[in-house]
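Supplementary notes for students who missed Thursday's class. We covered one full example, reproduced here. Read the sequence, then the structure, then the short commentary at the end.
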Amino acid sequence: MMRPLKRADKELFMKKWKGKKKIIIPVTAVILVGLLLLVPVVSGASAGKYRELKPEERDLSTYLEFSGNIETVTDSSVYAFASAKVLEVKVEKGDEVKKGDVIAVLDSSDAEYNIALKEAALKAGETSDYYNVRDSRTTLDNYSQALESGLDSSTNSAQKNLLTAQEDYQSAVDAYNKAKEDLDAGKSASVVSARQALQTQSASYDSAVAQHDAKMITDEALETYRIAYENARESYDLAVEGAGKELEDYKEAMEKAEEKLAKVERDYETSALTAGQNLEGYENNLEKTAALANEESTRLELEHLKESLEDYVITAPIDGVITSLDIKAGDVTAAGTRSIAEIADFSVMQVAVKIDEQDVAGVKEGDEVSVYINALDKTYEGRIASLSKTATIDNNAVYVDAVVEFGTDEEIRSSFSAEVKLVKAEAEKAVCIPAKSILYDVDNTAYIYVKDEKGKEQKRKVTLGISDGTYTQITEGLSLGETVLEEVTASSGIEMSFPRRNFPAMAE
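Structure (token representation):
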């Protein structure tokens, strides 16, 4: 069951006063006087109703608490993978084992007999044909290796030529594209230079025309400017024409590179075809007689039988403790039909808990937690290992399933009850006062009463931080050394029925 998060100071105060009943008990005057003497007193009209207190520096925290039972994280079932008689069981229930430790040994005599028969059959079939095939296989392997590593001369040469042709073609394409881009954008060096000269002469000619119109220069001078402009124009046209011819040259070079690439690709394909045909020829040499095929089959069966010998020694698949053992010497196992042992890893344990929907906000996988084991009176470090993506409704309560993992020791046992604490907020050396000292206006604004330097009561708004239910952090509105006034109410089961004092409102 999940314990609720410690509530805010406001809620604690409202619960304290809501529905409070006055208890009237006949007492003697002596008892009443004695009770009043136990109440700390402040001067003036507040005597017997309020006590003075100083803010304290405290380390506070708010947290969620959950409960559950301890479970193992990793369990493994052990199966026999061979049908045979059990010769020996090397473990007992409760034994600690490591991965690979022997649990039981099965009778492998039948398997070893079959291995001997296959070895004899294979030896008898080792004829000259077999050795011929072995040589052919070696030749095939060597040639295949040569092809894969590029050591075949003809294929290797064709491949190098292909790579060179591809690079040359790409360079030609890049050069053409760059020249075309420059021409289209007017960025060709010769064109740019000619254009700038033309712009200069054009501006000079336009200026000369204006001067001529204003009778500032002669017709001869204007003609000189016109001729210079025409020459610049002709140079620009020649530059554009030259850039176009240069682009054609780049295009021609690209086309020639493309033709060369096509030829080299054909040569490479021919070389690759020849290599493939050679490889196929070597492979055909391996196709021998049926007897030879039978020998190969025998060899494969022999390898399989030797590998299956491992199945006659049953080993632990994980580190852990034998929690169940259902096998003994003399039993006959059935391959893979039922578990013969159970192993649990107790090095890491888990607790399955339920988190109320109101508390799950902010909780995430990886959050650090503490795990308290009541039976051992010990606390362990852990973390939220998993958090369900869906909520569950049970008896009108909505919660989210979570799993907490933690490191263990030899004292912990499965099914022990555990309390999990998840710290939500912490504050070191926080300025704190008792939660019951905090009051609230109708607009839920928190305030307290303090005693000023003149000894007068003063209402003051405060900003609250975190609370552990008993003490509340004041983040703004109060300093260490100031005096706080707290109303004194019931004591030892007897409630003092004093009228609530109306302090003057705090000046804005």
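Commentary. The two ends are 47 Å apart (CA to CA). Residues 108-309 form a domain with the Helix Hairpins fold (CATH 1.10.287). If anything here is unclear, bring it to office hours.
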